[in-house]
Predict the structure of Anaerobic ribonucleoside-triphosphate reductase activating protein.
Amino acid sequence: MDTTLLRIGGFEPFSTVDYPGRLAAVIFCQGCPLRCGYCHNPDLIPARSAGQLTFEHVLWAIARRKEFLDAVVFSGGEPLAQAALIPAMASMRARGFEVGLHTAGTNPSLFEAALPFLDWVGFDVKAAFDDYRKVTGADVGEKARASLKILVTSGVPYEVRTTVWPGRIGKTEICVMASMLREMGVRRYVLQEARTPDQKAWPGDDMLQDPAFLSDTAAMFDQFEVRRAEIV
């Protein structure tokens, strides 16, 4: 498949936070089947937009910075909404970059096909798998479960993260999810603070500052982290 078919809604030439331990360029894929209520990139939800970038433009921008970059991350939106993702990742691999992916695992078959081209995955678990609709507006929990099972056994380094959305995802929900993820074999779990579209912290109860709750959750995993929203 032609890499030029990849729909790109944005590009970040340098990032230190999107791939652990690597300086990465980030390609934001256009389109997402989910409608998460806390989404801070709503402009990336439609399958197409007026401001799309060409893959050739992104390649040109990356080539100019190649000596400084370690990796290229495909984010979104939801990258697995596009079959053109795989040739695009292969193209980056051929240019000597490590390749990362941010995904909610909405397409298990495409995800499994993508794994041979990946060096790291940031996997978003939105809610307990049987309760996805209340957060995402879509019944894709079983697809996410299937993708995570594939990832855990793949040998590809990864982290699983959940965005804490006050009023929908609280302590009770996180406890259920943490137990579920531990049973699936997840070893690294990240709780991240929701951000509003203008990049402020989402208002609400701040359970991410509850030492007892965080200690109990951390005890369930080999690695655990709380990721605060960037305040601008």
About this structure: The CA atoms of residues 112 and 150 lie 7 Å apart. The beta strands are 8-15, 24-29, 71-75, 98-103, 120-124, 158-164, 188-193, 223-227.
